[in-house]
Amino acid sequence: MEFAHILLMLVVILAAAKLLAEASERVSQPAVLGELLAGLILGDSLLRLVDPRNEILHILAELGAVLLLFEIGLESDITELFRVGWRSLWVATIGVITPAVLGFGVSVLLGQPAMTAAFIGATLTATSVGITARVMKDLGILRWGESQIVLGAAVADDVIGLLILAVFSGLVQGETMSAWQVGKVLLLALVFLAGALTAGLKASHILLRVAEQMRARAALVTAALVFCFLLAAAAQLVGLAPIVGAFSAGLVLARTEHRVRVTERASAIADMLVPLFFVMMGAQMNLRAIDITTPAGLSAVGLAVLLIVVAILGKLASGLALWRTRMRPWLVGVGMVPRGEVGLIFATIGLQQKVFDVTVYTAVLILVMVTTLVTPPWLRALARRYGAHARHTG
How far apart are CA 124 and CA 206, in angstroms? Predict the structure, then answer.
């Protein structure tokens, strides 16, 4: 019965995701917005037809996130990423420091304890690259310099966020975080990325060459997925998010002669699992937890409104790093806005460690929902504006 239940939930999820994605595109909005709304409708907020805590669905959704970043890597140019590397790091640094400081300041002014305020500030540093990358892919602007900067900044943001999370988790548990512990995390991240992009290139050539000689069906795409999952697993083992490993695998395979064939075949699998990831992300948002008829509910909404403002301003400030360049800073700043699943992870840890009470946790959930939902149409509007301007001036 359990298996039948999972199959029925998949039927509902995939059908709703496709129908609402179609509706979104009919009104000139990105498909991902429809998928997020499908999760909001099917999850705890409204119909409760999909359980976001179901372990099997959660694993399938995470697999969708891995495949999404693998696709993004395949369609990215590693040379361009290295070319904008320092600018990406600068964007990531500003995009971490500014919202952290603003979030801490607002929380203290609202009477939150110092540790809670600091954890709220840390939560605002997170960026969910999955949403931005999907929108940029759907809009066909992944090759734009701004998109490459956002993708590079997202990798740097993941490393910085990991360090922040490690430090605060240790402080909450009463541990003394040494410079060596923080440095070790950073070193592991850098070694992994360097190894994935150098040794991985040689290993992938051998793996794909062997697969090409095989007569078994789908040997080439299987070898590519093996490489992707291997790097994703390795990333998690060294303390990074699996999507960083998947993105690295895509970057590596994008430099091989099999890029087009691998992309076509991998997309067929991703097209089913990636929407599942966004539906499950939307399903985790619980509007029922917000009762504005109670003082706690009003307090949560008030805190959420202020945090939304500083969260968006903090990430928009990251675009200022490109102000005197030929890049379009607003596109980069907006691309860094969504918190998505990364913000949910930070919030959940804060609640589990009893740093957050329910009011603060609810406020953070509202923040995650708003930044997740406003980014796709905002990016689309900017891409249309800049695209039209480029055609006009061209």
Answer: 42
